[in-house]
Amino acid sequence: MSVLRRTLVLSGVLVLAAAGCGSNSLENNGSGSSPSAPTSGPASVDPALAAALPPKIAAAKKIVVGVDASYPPNESLEGGKTVVGMDVDLFNAVAAKFGVTVDWQPAGFDTIITGVQGGKYDMGISSFTINDKRKQQVNMVSYFSAGTLWVTAKGNPKGVNADDACGKTVAVQKGTTQLEDDLPKRQAKCKTDGKPEIKLVVRDKQDQATADLVAGKADAMLADSPVSLYAVKQTNGALEQLGEIYDAAPYGYVIPKAQADFAKAIAEALKASAADGSYKAALAKWNNESGAISDFAVNP
Q: Are 46 and 97 in contact (CB under 8 A)?
């Protein structure tokens, strides 16, 4: 659901956790809001795309986006208030095609889809893996591919085996595919094999889960591959990846179910961004080129 700026191992992660957003205290007061102007460069307004904007967005000349800004390198807070990251740069370039700005509103990850459904946000962009459950709730437009990757302390001192983590303590973010789809299958296998269950440390924000692992409160964590790889690099050798990336799947922009035409227009804007180079440039800035896709689609 994710690409360095700090060099201290433990303090860097804890600062990230402290700065990360997503709490209810920031959702309504606007302190985490980060309006963004269209990016400069090759992007230019496409009249056909602009005509596809929902009336509310066209009138406001901005897209209000719900985002969990605790998932670097995909989305995080800079200076405690500005949302930055791969998703931000990438969608700012897309929004420029429509001639509108983006108002990034920090929110709890598991509240964003509901917020989109209820009209609080025009869209949700927060490293959402596309799956059947989410496609039943909203429209999703594919824009990136990521898998899951486990991480342990350097040297894997607790001897964690991702395929047999029974009895181990594992940190994971609330509302993620890893918590809702991956770990339940592993828990079921532990039970079938007569082994102790995986002890889950479920955190509201990913940077908290990373900090738990660095501090020794968890034996391992699992998250989207860009985020796990970033954590390994960010902690300057304190962490290492465990095994390989698996279950690669596309991320999707979250758009209200009733706005199918807008979703299609977003897919077209992504194609235009890929054609003028701004798509690849945004990924390259965050070392995420490996996740580039070319088949942008609505509800793939």
A: yes
Task: Locate the domains of the chain by residue range.
Answer: 9-146+249-291, 147-248
Tell me if 47 sits within 8 A of 182, measured CB to CB. no
- Alpha-carbon distances of 279 from 49, 88, 175, 250, rounded to whole Å: 17, 11, 27, 15
Token duo for residue 241: 């990846």
What are the residues whose beta carbons fall under 8 Å from the beta carbon of 222, sequence distance 6 or more? Answer: 148, 149, 150, 151, 162, 170, 172, 178, 182, 183, 228
Which helix or strand (DSSP H or E) is residue 259 part of?
none
Please identify which residue in the block is written with the tokens 């296998």. Answer: 189
Strand pairing class (62-67; 123-124): parallel
Q: Round to whole Å and give the CA distance between 80 and 190.
A: 41
pTM: 0.75
For domain 9-146+249-291, which CATH number applies: 3.30.70.380, 3.40.190.10, 3.40.47.10, 3.40.50.300?
3.40.190.10
Q: How far apart are CA 22 and CA 70, in angstroms?
A: 7
Q: Are 32 and 205 in contact (CB under 8 A)?
A: no
pLDDT tens profile 200-233 = 999 999 999 999 999 999 999 999 999 999 899 8
Amino acid at 71: Y
